[in-house]
Amino acid sequence: MKPFIYDYTLEELQTWVKEKKQPTFRADQIFDWLYVKRISSFEEMSNIPKKLRDQLEEHFNFVTLNEITRFQSKDGTIKFLFELHDKNAIETVIMKHDYGNSICVTTQVGCRVGCTFCASTLGGLKRDLSAGEIIAQVVQAQQRLDKTNERISSIVIMGIGEPFENYDQMMKFLRTVIHEKGLNIGQRHITVSTSGIVPNIYKFADEKTQINLAISIHAPNDKLRSSLMPVNRRFPFEELLKACKYYIETSGRRLTFEYALIGGKNDKPEHAEELADVLQGMLCHVNLIPVNYVPERDYTRTPKKDIFEFKKILERKKINVTIRREQGHDIEAACGQLRAKHMELSTR
User: Fold this and answer.
1) 287 assigned binding-site residue
2) Which of 17, 163, 175, 287 is the most buried (most CB within 10 A)?
3) pLDDT-based confidence at 225, cuts 50/70/90?
4) Which residues are responsible for catalysis (predicted)?
């Protein structure tokens, strides 16, 4: 299969046009057509010579994301289920905020991490996405927003899959979306979330970017975390905390810990006390997430009064904490839910 045009960075495009005996500024023009004008065919590149357009057509494919279905929430959240060229399906979500539009992108088809409260892991991991397939989610969402003169202002890499298990393609995606000649998304407006792939936390720290890092922690100790997140058996809690401290020291940036509150599992006052003790002295922020109900998992949501009590305990111990604002609750916008339903229907 021909490579996807979105898989090429500007530098790779510059090398490619040189090989075609074209001046390097042609690569800048192509990049502009892709990410600023956001066209969908090489024929639309009107300032590119016909011969070069033909060579682009011959050498590259555009990423095809066929919209299987789309839901829009009362709060403005839009959830897409896209079909890829190989008939696999992925999810992408646009979220509306007071400060702008955020997009949540997927990095893998499925997930092998196995968090017991998450729909993304149902069916396991099928394959990694290429950088271009991740980029295409942003471009296609932006094309939709172009119709109302809106812009994607922030990106969260929190969709289906574990981004740090597709590290190289994720980093390639990031280099393109932050490029000033491309989508030009500010680094501080991008957050990548990991379940705790320890070696790549160190690697990401050494990248010295301004991109935000979030760690899915979900428990205050090794035993409980292993029961909720099998990845903890590969990278134990103590090793994860060491990597987190290295990231903070190396980057100088605040780390976010995501904590999904699951009724009767990890949401008791003693869990809050223990979590606060574990995080004492760290430059961090805790984001409490009321768990979404997933029929296959059968976990219950923590009552609101218990959520606020958990928050108060952390605050009393001087831990910076917020409760995540729920969005798209009426359209099953939790990660993996729409894809799981699609997979079930496809196998009937």
Assistant:
1) no
2) 163
3) very high
4) 91 (proton acceptor), 335 (s-methylcysteine intermediate)
Among 11, 83, 91, 344, the one annotated catalytic: 91
Q: What is the pTM of this model?
A: 0.92
Whether 103 has a binding-site annotation, put simply, is no
| Total residue count of the chain as it appears in this document | 348
The pLDDT tens digits for 261-293 are 999 999 999 999 999 999 999 999 999 998 876
159 CB burial (10 A radius; 0-12, 13-18, 19+): buried
**Residues 316 and 273: beta-carbon distance below 8 Å:** no
pLDDT digits (tens, 9 = 90+) for 153-177: 999 999 999 999 999 999 999 999 9
**Pick the catalytic residue: 104, 244, 284, 335?**
335
115 in a labelled binding site: yes
118 known ligand binder: yes
- Token output for 145: 């927003």
Could you confirm whether 244 is annotated as catalytic?
A: no
pLDDT tens-place string over residues 71-85: 998 888 999 999 999
Q: What is the CB neighbour count within 10 angstroms for residue 335? A: 22
For the sheet with 212-216, list strands across it: 66-72, 78-83, 89-97, 100-104, 152-157, 190-194, 212-216, 255-261, 284-290, 321-323
Q: Which domains does the chain have, with CATH numbers?
A: 5-59 (1.10.150.530), 65-166 (3.20.20.70), 195-326 (3.20.20.70)
Nearest of 149, 1, 148 to residue 64 by alpha carbon: 1
